[in-house]
């Protein structure tokens, strides 16, 4: 194994740092003797044996609004460079005679990401010289095609190219002709490229060009207009494994003939037709795709007639013996009858029926055959209860891991029902009609539970009545607005059953007074993120926050507390900050106590928060100069002291040592 990077490549990286001129994104490059090995720098990956740089992740590190001309020769010292990410940096072009053709000397160069910059079509000529390229991402630039030569045909020289992304550019149908010689192409992205395949806009030759890509396995044509006329030509792409036609203006009657030819796509595994106006009759054609594993038909205006006459079309989909993923969400003309047509889909692992006008009581009998189901989403319906029958008493959904029942009308009785699903990892019952007492002991069988979402119900108590109940795997708990303002009963909350909790959301809760049962230092010893925004709290509870040694993030917006505890954004705190509150929170990354009535000098104990990355003390009444202790926070990236009463030479000192701070607001 190599002991470190090459010196010439280390110097070249420091030159790149000057080009990008970003004090935050590349802040650890070359800082200190202990950081001399550039292979350990963030965004850099080296060959572990030769020590040569093979990958650079330099995407989205230039400040917004900066427009740069790139010197591509800066990358020549990296002789083994394989992957280069330069997306989202506001690059408008290259310096004259220093464009991308220079990189043709790099024999291992295979991957180039230039997405979301400001290149135009002139740069295509230089890119065509990179004969070793296998993947090229040009999405989100200012590329255009015209009746004149536009450079796209030059990309045909990239004989090894397997992945090409031209999405979100100003193209048209003629781009298909320019790409027809890329015979090695396996993945093609043309999302939102102004393709229009209506009969009065399309030449047959354009569509035939697309059918020449015999090795194409992935094709994304999403968000183009009226692609009905292209469907018949897509059927000739026999190697296709993934086809995405989301929001392509497909119409049921116009597209029917094209879908009938889809039976030729014997290798197709993933098909997304969401956001089109389809007819349920197309399901007959889709049932002829023998390899299909994933089918998305969300927001397609699918309709089951009141007389069930067209229900047989759904039943035909059961021929897809390998189908594992089915999304029928946002088809608001479906109803409870859809369940009976899905009962024979025994291979399904994910079923999404969100916003499908399911209502009343759902019988689980129809789901009895879905024994491989891992994910079930029935959110945003009008379901009031679930019903088991004698025929499905043994139904336990033994493989179910994710259940989303949010935004329905379930009451407390549903808690006993879901407790039967012993392998669930994520349970969402937000925005239902749960009321009064919720005893988490009812979930006692859910020992695999990792995430629980119960926000926006109307509870008085969320407690555990059994001292032995413990959800040792639960890491995330959402309890936003479960104790409503209009309630006259003091809220009771016990979290002792969740000893491993890392993220706790308690926003918009009321009546969390002295009866609030949270033993912070013991029960929440592993907590990293705490959100209590807009929850009126007593100062006696808030004082315990400093005991949470693992805390990384605190959010206490609009809590209406008067006292001496740091908070976030527009509280009513008054007085000086006391060190005791953060005596053990040394791992804090973000501290925002802006827009308060804090006064006095800036706290010198800030130096004890050695991992602090963002500090916002703006819009208070602090006085005096900036203490030298602020310089000791080596990780600090963001500092805002604006709108205070500070004085002295603070604008330049003591931050002259702090390279990451020179353009931050004071």
Automatic annotation (TrEMBL):
Residues 7-47 form the Leucine-rich repeat-containing N-terminal plant-type domain. Residues 314-561 form the Disease resistance R13L4/SHOC-2-like LRR domain. Its main location: membrane. InterPro entries: Leu-rich_rpt (IPR001611), Leu-rich_rpt_typical-subtyp (IPR003591), LRR_dom_sf (IPR032675), LRR_N_plant-typ (IPR013210), LRR_R13L4/SHOC2-like (IPR055414). Keywords: Cell membrane, Glycoprotein, Leucine-rich repeat, Membrane, Receptor, Repeat, Signal, Transmembrane, Transmembrane helix. The keyword Ribonucleoprotein does not apply. Belongs to the RLP family. This is Leucine-rich repeat-containing N-terminal plant-type domain-containing protein. The lineage of its organism: Eukaryota, Viridiplantae, Streptophyta, Embryophyta, Tracheophyta.
């Amino acid at each position: 194994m190599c002991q470190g990077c090459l010196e010439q490549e280390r110097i070249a990286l420091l030159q790149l740092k000057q080009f990008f001129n970003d004090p935050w994104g590349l802040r650890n490059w070359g800082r200190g003797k202990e950081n001399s090995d550039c292979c350990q720098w963030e965004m850099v990956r080296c060959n572990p044996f030769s020590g040569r740089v093979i990958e650079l992740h330099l995407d989205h590190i230039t400040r917004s609004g900066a427009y740069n001309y790139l010197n591509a020769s800066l990358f020549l010292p990296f002789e083994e460079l394989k992957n280069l990410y330069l997306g989202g940096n506001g690059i408008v072009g290259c310096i004259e005679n220093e464009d991308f053709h220079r990189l043709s000397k790099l024999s291992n160069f295979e991957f180039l990401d230039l997405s979301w910059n400001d290149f135009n079509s002139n740069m295509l000529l230089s890119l065509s010289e990179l004969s070793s390229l296998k993947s090229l991402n040009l999405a989100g630039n200012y590329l255009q095609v015209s009746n004149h030569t536009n450079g796209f045909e030059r990309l045909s020289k990239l004989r090894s190219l397997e992945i090409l992304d031209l999405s979100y550019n100003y193209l048209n149908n003629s781009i298909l002709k320019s790409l027809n010689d890329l015979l090695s192409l396996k993945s093609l992205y043309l999302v939102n490229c102004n393709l229009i395949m209506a009969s009065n806009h399309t030449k047959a030759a354009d569509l035939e060009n697309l059918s020449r890509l015999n090795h194409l396995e992935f094709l994304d044509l999403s968000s183009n207009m009226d692609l009905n006329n292209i469907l018949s030509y897509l059927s000739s792409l026999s190697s296709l494994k993934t086809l995405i036609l989301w929001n392509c203006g497909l119409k049921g009657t116009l597209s029917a003939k094209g879908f009938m030819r889809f039976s030729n796509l014997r290798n197709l595994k993933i098909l997304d037709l969401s956001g089109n106006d389809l007819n349920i009759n197309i399901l007959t054609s889709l049932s002829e795709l023998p390899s299909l594993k994933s089918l998305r038909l969300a927001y397609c205006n699918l309709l089951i007639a009141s007389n069930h006459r067209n229900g047989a079309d759904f039943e035909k989909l059961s021929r897809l013996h390998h189908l594992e993923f089915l999304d029928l969400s946002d088809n608001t003309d479906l109803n409870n009858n859809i369940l009976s047509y899905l009962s024979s889909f025994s291979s399904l692992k994910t079923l999404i029926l969100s916003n499908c006008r399911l209502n009343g009581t759902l019988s689980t009998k129809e789901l009895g055959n879905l024994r491989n189901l891992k994910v079930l989403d029935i959110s945003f319906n009008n379901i009031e209860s679930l019903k088991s029958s004698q025929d499905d008493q043994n139904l336990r959904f033994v493989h179910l891991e994710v259940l989303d029942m949010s935004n329905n009308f379930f009451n407390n009785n549903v808690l006993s029902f879901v407790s039967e699903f012993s392998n669930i990892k994520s349970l969402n019952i937000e925005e239902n009609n749960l009321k009064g007492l919720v005893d988490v002991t009812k979930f006692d069988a859910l020992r695999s539970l990792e995430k629980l979402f119960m926000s926006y119900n109307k509870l008085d108590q969320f407690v555990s009545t059994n001292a032995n109940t413990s959800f040792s795997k639960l890491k995330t708990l959402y309890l936003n607005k479960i104790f409503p303002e209009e309630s006259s009963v003091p809220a009771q909350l016990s979290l002792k059953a969740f000893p491993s909790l890392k993220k706790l959301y308690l926003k918009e809760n009321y009546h969390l007074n002295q009866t609030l049962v949270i033993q912070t230092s013991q029960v929440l010893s592993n907590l990293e993120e705490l959100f209590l925004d807009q929850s009126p709290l007593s100062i006696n509870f808030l004082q315990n926050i400093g005991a949470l040694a693992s805390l990384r993030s605190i959010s206490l917006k609009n809590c209406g507390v008067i006292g001496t505890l740091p908070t976030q954004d527009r509280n009513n705190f008054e007085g000086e900050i006391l060190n005791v509150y953060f005596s053990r929170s040394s791992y804090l990354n973000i501290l925002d106590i802006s827009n308060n009535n804090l006064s006095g000098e800036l706290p010198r104990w800030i130096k004890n928060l050695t991992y602090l990355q963002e500090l916002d003390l703006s819009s208070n009444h602090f006085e005096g100069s900036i203490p030298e202790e602020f310089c000791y926070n080596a990780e600090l990236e963001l500092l805002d002291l604006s709108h205070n009463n500070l004085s002295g030479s603070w604008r330049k000192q003591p931050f002259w040592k702090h390279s990451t701070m020179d353009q931050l607001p004071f």
